[in-house]
């Protein structure tokens, strides 16, 4: 079975545009580049991935385009753009041109912004219009504070191709399941919203066992079904809790438990369709419908 990792990162701290790394665990404060993941990905049996931005600069997005040339497994890039810039449409056009087909979506780092209502600001309408008109996707990097604003944005842009990163980052360690699932219930009613089965292990505080994620995974399948969930490793943040192959095994086991027979969708086809990746999926019954030209 072909497996697509819908969410992984590379970064180089020497670039000095990863401000959040200063507060991250010491083990993450180093370079993570294609050579660091290649063997782990091959051992796990993952053939392709979507490379996601980790710094709020357009320069880092172009750096990811360069890294993708070193890593043939990268099938697409989710970048960053200044969504409040007066020339945001020209900036997006420039990234599309420079990416030569690699740019598949954009992601502001909303979770790090002081204003929890930032995503709902009318000043962002032009940027969202352009994302939609250019056929790009939108990755929603939010936690529970920003979920109300995300819902308002979805109502304003009902045709937006959007995916909720890391299941909206539920506070698993705090046990606030009811608050999170109530928002997931509302968000999942937006028919174009997808959700990433990613980042959950790193939300666990010590000494919480990884079994604590199971009710959240069960709820995601109950709300989104296997047709709107896609697996992502969230590597290298994953390394603070587990290795690459272990998280893949956990996610596959839970997928088989709550959506038997749907691994081809959750671990490949949904990501290929959502990001319009140029990946053929032979023997999985989806290549004709889900393969698109990325250019």
TrEMBL record:
Pfam families: Amidohydro_2 (PF04909). SUPFAM superfamilies: Metallo-dependent hydrolases. Gene3D superfamilies: Metal-dependent hydrolases (3.20.20.140). Residues 4-276 form the Amidohydrolase-related domain. Belongs to the metallo-dependent hydrolases superfamily. This is Amidohydrolase. It comes from Dyella flagellata.
């Amino acid at each position: 079975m072909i497996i697509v990792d819908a969410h992984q990162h590379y970064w180089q701290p020497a670039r000095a545009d990863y401000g959040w790394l200063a507060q991250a665990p010491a083990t993450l404060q180093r370079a993570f580049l294609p050579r660091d993941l290649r063997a782990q990905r091959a051992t796990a049996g993952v053939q392709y991935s979507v490379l996601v931005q980790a710094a709020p600069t357009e320069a880092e997005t172009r750096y990811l385009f360069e890294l993708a040339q070193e890593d043939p497994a990268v099938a697409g890039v989710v970048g960053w753009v200044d969504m409040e810039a007066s020339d945001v449409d020209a900036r997006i056009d420039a990234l599309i041109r420079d990416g030569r087909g690699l740019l598949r979506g954009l992601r502001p780092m909303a979770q790090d912004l002081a204003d929890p209502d930032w995503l709902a600001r009318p000043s962002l309408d032009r940027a969202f219009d352009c994302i939609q008109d250019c056929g790009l996707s939108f990755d929603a990097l939010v936690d529970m504070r920003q979920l109300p604003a995300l819902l308002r944005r979805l109502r304003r842009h009902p045709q937006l191709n959007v995916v909720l990163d890391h299941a909206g980052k539920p506070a698993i360690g705090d046990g606030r399941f009811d608050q999170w699932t109530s928002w997931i219930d509302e968000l999942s009613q937006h028919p174009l919203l997808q959700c990433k089965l990613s980042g959950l292990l790193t939300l666990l505080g010590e000494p919480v066992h990884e079994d604590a994620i199971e009710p959240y995974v069960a709820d995601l399948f109950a709300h989104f079904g296997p047709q709107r969930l896609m697996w992502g490793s969230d590597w290298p943040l994953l390394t603070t809790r587990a290795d690459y192959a272990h998280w893949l095994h956990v996610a596959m086991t839970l997928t088989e438990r709550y959506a038997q027979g749907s691994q081809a969708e959750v671990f490949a086809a949904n990501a290929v369709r959502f990001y319009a990746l140029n990946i053929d999926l032979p023997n999985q019954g989806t290549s004709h419908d889900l393969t698109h030209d990325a250019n």
